[in-house]
Amino acid sequence: MEEKKIYEGKLITLGDSEVGKTCLIYRFFEETFISSYLSTIGFDLKKKTVRLDNGRKIKLVIYDTAGQERFKSLSVNYIKKADGILIVYDITNKQSFINVENWIKNAREDMRKNVPIYLIGNKIDLEDQRVITKENGENLSAQYKLKFYETSCKDGTNIDKCFQDMANELYNIIQQKIGNNPKEDEVIKIEKKDKKRKKCC
């Protein structure tokens, strides 16, 4: 029988400018590599339905954020709504790695409880320019208890795995919250709207 239940999870990318957040998304959602640098102005939105390990499907809705300082305050509203967070740094850019801790702390201040965060060291195709070792990334992810991936948007290394793992984790979170028997054709989201509180006066 065709699966009629529609599961949905919202993701957000965080990280400095030029670390490859947009390229990461295009590689997964459009299955293409952007060779020229595209600067995201504000936010961009992409959607893709992913088949899970159990054969079911989930729609991933991802907000690609700008890393510029003037847009950081705008990220707060998206972090509050996010079901999963991808924090990206560039293995050839030391400062982008140093800034990861700020991105983690900012995310944890504003996100909902138990939202998974993945740490991504991008551009591993530029191995000859690497300044941040894989061990550096592993140690930082262990410190903050995050899942860690090294990726390449150019050759696709670990891109699908990262998003597939996130999709499966979000589905498991949904199942824990709403159970296995939602209504057919209902869009099932992780963040369920709270009932409106009656005003006391």
Task: Please outline what is shown here.
With 201 residues, this protein is of the alpha/beta class. Helix content is 33%, strand content 24%.
Report on this model:
- By secondary structure, the protein is an alpha/beta fold.
- The protein has one domain (6-189): P-loop containing nucleotide triphosphate hydrolases (Rossmann fold).
- The protein is 33% helix and 24% strand.
- The chain contains six helices and seven strands, in the order βαββαβααβαβαβ.
- Strands 1, 2, 3, 4, 5, 6 and 7 form a seven-stranded mixed sheet that branches.
**Based on the structure given, which CATH architecture is correct?**
3-Layer(aba) Sandwich
Uncertain spans, ≥5 residues at pLDDT below 50?
193-201
Q: Helical stretch count?
A: 6
Helical proportion, percent range: 25-40%
Q: For the record, give the distance between the C-alpha atoms at the N and C termini, rounded to a whole number.
A: 51 Å
Task: Give the total of domains.
Answer: 1
Arithmetic mean of pLDDT: 82
**In angstroms, what is the radius of gyration?**
17 Å
Q: Major β-sheet, in short?
A: 7 strands, mixed
Can you identify the CATH class? Alpha Beta
Secondary-structure element string:
EHEEHEHHEHEHE
Q: What's the number of extended β-strand segments?
A: 7
Q: Which shape, going by the Cα principal axes? A: globular
- Percentage beta strand: 15-25%
Tell me the CATH topology: Rossmann fold
